[in-house]
Amino acid sequence: MSDLRVIDAHFHVWDLAVQRLPWLEGTDGSISKTYTFSDLADIYAQMDGVEFVGGVYVEVDCSDALAEDAIVYDLMEREPRVLAAMLRGSVGPAMRVPLNAAGIREPLHVDGAARGRCLEPSFIDGLAALAAAGKPFESCNRVGELEDAYRAFSQVPEETVILNHLGNVERMDAAWCSAMERFAALPNLYVKVSGYPTADAGFVRELLAFVRETFRADRLLYASNWPVVNMYSSLAEHFELVRDAFGDDGDFFMGNAVRAYGLQIGKE
């Protein structure tokens, strides 16, 4: 039996010797250190029956996005398993899109993001521009603004949107469930199964069951959120939980990411 081929659709790396990540100052300090792609690959290498094909780098909300672009370019030149990069940009009709970016993420979940930002006309125009260029938008939203996000994305249904971390789920209340059901009706929206706390096993079972029932199977992506996952779980624990829920589903662990990001992956 061949190994399960895995694409991690959401990982970060950073070097605190040369980068400043202001948001780390508001965390518990447990992830305030440098992380490399080799660190990530080593974790997957220790998993039995898993072939780590590669992953999608997601911007780290650092203080110098231009410097991050260059760092990621160098990383992609050295490491072919960095399959795509979703880099930071301010979404609008004349936005900056780095040449090495598969698409754009504008963090909407951070303190510096204005509430209602995704409903601004320039943001909607930017989504349309991304759609015309064939570049996806990586969406990370405050859980209280998921309804705003739906209203924005529904105005540009042709744009591929990749919703991070199950909408940053905190609890399965009526508002979150309703927002997820509305997102599921959008024709080009994908959801990353990541970002949720794992201490409550019952919550995790209920959450993953709801996600599988609500979204089409070809719209769900495996993602780790490494190394941020270490603040509330571990990559290994998260991987085992989703593998228990999804089995060795090749589309969930790889194929859907290939389609969502337009990746070029050889077959072995």
Q: What does the secondary structure layout of this molecule look like, with pairings?
A:
Blueprint: E1 4-11, H1 37-45, E2 50-58, H2 65-78, E3 82-88, E4 103-105, H3 121-133, E5 137-139, H4 146-155, E6 161-163, H5 165-168, H6 174-184, E7 189-193, H7 201-214, E8 220-222, H8 235-246, H9 250-261
Parallel strand pairs: 1-2, 2-3, 3-4, 4-5, 5-6, 6-7, 7-8
Question: Could you give a quick summary of the protein structure above?
Answer:
The protein is an alpha/beta fold.
3D structure, described in words:
The protein contains nine helices and eight strands. With 268 residues, the chain is α/β, with parallel strands linked by helices. It has an eight-stranded parallel beta sheet with strand order 1-2-3-4-5-6-7-8. The longest helix is centred in the N-terminal third of the chain and has 14 residues, at 65-78. It is globular and about 50 Å long. The two termini are 14 Å apart. The model has no long low-confidence stretch (mean pLDDT 95).
